[in-house]
Amino acid sequence: MMIILRPNTQQDKITQLENYIGRLGGIEIQHIQGQDTTILGLSGDTSRIDPGAFDMFEFVERTMKVAEPYKKANRKYHPENTVINAGGVEIGGKNIVVMAGPCSVESEAQVLSIARDCKRAGAAILRGGAFKPRSSPYAFQGLGMDGLDLLSIAGRKTGMPIVSEIMSTDHLEVFDREVDIIQVGARNMQNFVLLKELSHLRKPILLKRGLSATIEELLMAAEYIMAGGNDNVILCERGIRTFETYTRNTLDLSIIPVLKRQSHLPVVVDPSHGTGLWWMVESMSKAAIAAGADGLIIEVHNDPPHARCDGQQSLTPLVFSQLMRSLKAIAQVEGRDI
Fold first, then answer.
1. Distance from C-alpha of 338 to C-alpha of 61, rounded to nearest angstrom
2. Which fold would CATH assign to domain 2-64?
3. Is the whole-model pTM more than 0.85?
4. Taking a C-beta distance cutoff of 8 angstroms, is the pair 68, 262 a contact?
C-alpha cells in the first residue's frame, strides 16, 4: 500500500500519520521523497487496512494498493537503484562487476593460480564452489569446508572478495564469517527455511533464479530475505529449463530489463551455466551488458578438459583475458566501466 501526501506536507503532519500507522501494528513504513511530495510505502500485512481510513487526514491526497506481492524488492517503494558493497566492491553502480573463478575448488595451487589470472584480467570478485549440488549422487560434490578454506586463502592472497554457494543452514556461521557474498543456487531459490535464516544476516546474498522460476517467484524469494531485514540481495539470471536441449539451459536475457523496471536490486548474469558451452559465453556476456546487467559471473579453469566439474562451460585464463578486453569496450558504449 502507498499513501501519497499532498505537496509540501509539513514534517509534524507526517509524524502524526506515522504514529497512527504504528498503532496498527505489524506495518513497516518506507519513505519515498520526491521534490515536493512525500509517499509512504507500507509493507507487511496490509490486507486488513481499509484504505479509506486515511481520508481523515486532510494532507493525504490518495491511497493506492500495490498489485505486486513483493514490496521491499519493488521499485515503487525504492525508486533509486540499490548499490551493494561486497568486500569493498560495489555492485549495482556505474561499474559492471565481473566475478570469475572455477566451478569447483580442486586444490590450493589450482584456485590460487586461477584467482591471480582472473584478477590480472580485470575480474573484481573470485567465485568458487566448495559445496556442489549435482544431479548425480556419484558426481564430484566439492571439497566442502576444505574447499572453502582454500577459496578464502586465494581471496586473501589476491585481495579479492569471494562468492561461494551455501547448501545448508548448518554452514551459516562459517559462511557469514568467511565469505563476502553468499550464493543461493538455483535449486535452493525456494528453500524458504534457508532464505529465512539468511534474512537475519547482513551479508550480501547472490540469489540465482530457479530452473523453472517465474520473474515473480524470483522476486518473492528475494522478498523472503529482505523481509527479515537483509536488504543486500543481488538477483542472478543463470538460464531456465525449456524444451531446447542444444544448450544446457535457455539464458533469458529479457529478464534483465524486466527486473530493472520492477525492482531496484542489482542484476547479475551467469552465461556459463546459462549456456553450458564455453564458446557461447563471450556473446552472451556482451549481450547481457548491452541489456543492462550490473555484473557477470563466469567460470574460468586453467585446464578445462580435466576439470572435475563443468569443464565444458569454463574459459581458459587466456580466453577470459581476451573476453574482458571486449567487455570493456561494450561497457563504454553503455556509459559504464569494468
1. 44
2. Alpha-Beta Plaits (3.30.70)
3. yes
4. yes
Q: Which of 34-48, 88-102, 310-324 has the lowest mean pLDDT?
A: 34-48
Instruction: Say how many Å lie between the first and final Cα of the chain, rounded.
Output: 38
| Residue located via cell numbers 557477470 | 296
- Rounded to whole angstroms, the Cα distance separating 30 from 276 reads 41
Q: What is the CATH number of domain 84-333?
A: 3.20.20.70
Q: What 3 state SS string does 42-82 have?
A: EEECCCCCCHHHHHHCCCEEEEECCCCCCCCCECCCCCCCC
Distance between CA 73 and CA 161 in Å, rounded? 25
Tens digit of each residue's pLDDT (9 = 90 or more) over 31-59: 888 777 788 888 877 777 887 888 888 99
Number of Cβ within 10 Å of residue 140's Cβ equals: 16
Q: Which DSSP state fits 234?
A: E
User: What mean pLDDT is predicted for residues 142-163?
Assistant: 94
Other CB atoms within 10 A of residue 76 CB: 17
What would the pLDDT profile of 324-338 be if each residue is shown by its tens digit?
999 999 999 999 999
Residue 138 has pLDDT above 80, yes or no: no
Return d(Cα 84, Cα 25) in angstroms, integer. 30
In degrees and rounded to multiples of 5, residue 210 shows phi and psi of: -65, 165
* Contact assessment for residue 285 and residue 327, using Cβ atoms and an 8 Å cutoff: yes
Domain positions in the chain: 2-64, 84-333
Amino acid letter, 269: V
Grid cell of 48 as nine digits: 486488513
d(CA 197, CA 180): 17
